[in-house]
Amino acid sequence: MSDHRMAIAVILVMGIATFATRIVPVLLFGRGSKVPDYVMYLGKVVPYTAMGLLIVYCLKDVQIMAAPHALPEIVAMAVVVLSYLWKRNSILSVVIGTVLYMLMVQNM
Q: Are residues 42 and 13 in the same domain?
């Protein structure tokens, strides 16, 4: 399969998967029906759980005893938290923290 066909196939599959995640709740709960309480609860707790899981995953291999002693990770996390508290913009905070982290890792 050529690269162009593979790219088109991947785009189509991703489009179908994205559409499916949008249409399944409508099919399950209908347009006007009340969403069950447990689904509302999951909608409130899953984003925080996912962020916690991502933080643990990102920090699992950090070597505190070896140079640079987790300095890039600590500084980047602090910048993310402080920029979020300042601007209340999650995407901006993550982008700033990621760019800062990558600059620190590349230059240390």
A: yes
How many domains is the chain partitioned into structurally? Answer: 2
Question: Quick check: 1 pLDDT over 80?
Answer: no
Domain limits for position 88: 60-108
Task: Name which residue leads in pLDDT, 10 or 108.
Answer: 10
Pull the structure tokens for residue 103: 């600059």
Question: Contact 81/97 with Cβ under 8 angstroms?
Answer: no
Closest CA to 94 of 81, 107, 108, 75: 81
CA nearest to 72, candidates 97, 99, 98, 105: 105
Q: What is the pLDDT of residues 85-94, one digit of tens each?
A: 999 998 999 9
Q: Is residue 37 located within the same domain as residue 76? A: no
Contact 64, 70 (CB under 8 A): yes
